[in-house]
Specification:
This protein is α+β, with helices and mostly antiparallel strands. The chain folds into two domains: about 80 residues; about 70 residues, OB fold (Dihydrolipoamide Acetyltransferase, E2P), CATH 2.40.50. Strands 3-2-1-4-5 form a five-stranded antiparallel sheet, with no helix packed on it. It starts with a helix and ends with a strand. About 10% of the residues have low confidence.
Length: about 150
């Protein structure tokens, strides 16, 4: 029973770590709201569609392995339980890795280049651009671009 409790605690710790790390990992600057107005307003210079390929971090395999080991540990007793735990860990790791791969599948985003009023250039990746066009006046807030 103690090994089950320890395994459950490890699983919760990994789940807490991986949940906090789940994000879209394409570059975005998010410090615009603290700068002067001249650095938050600008004009769109260019818009391009780019393909972002987020690779797996291994967190899905680890979490899946822990869950599979916990489930396998509930089956049988003695050496059968050990075999079931190992099989569950391997199967869970494979499934967890596949889930993470499908979640991080390559996708297209809009890469918007903005010439700010203070002369700086910023490039931001967004999943949609709504009514934004080259030459539109925009405001940058928290790493996103909005029509002004």
């Amino acid at each position: 029973m103690k090994s089950t409790t320890t395994l459950a605690a490890m699983m919760l710790a990994v789940a807490a770590l991986t949940t906090g790390c789940a994000s879209n990992n394409y570059p975005q600057s998010t410090d615009y709201s603290t700068r002067a107005d001249a650095s938050t307003y600008g004009t769109i210079d260019s818009i391009q569609v780019v393909r972002v390929d987020d690779s797996t971090s291994g967190a899905g395999a680890v979490a899946g392995g822990l869950i599979g080991a916990l489930a396998g540990n509930q089956i049988g007793s003695g050496s059968g339980r050990t075999a079931a735990t190992a099989a569950g860990a391997i199967g869970g790791a494979v499934v967890g890795n596949q889930v993470e791969k499908s979640r991080n599948a390559p996708h297209e985003v809009y890469q918007v280049s903005v010439r700010l009023d203070n002369g700086d250039y910023r490039t931001v990746n967004q999943d949609s651009i709504y009514d934004l066009r080259v030459g539109s006046r925009v405001r940058m807030v928290d790493g996103r671009i909005y029509r002004y």
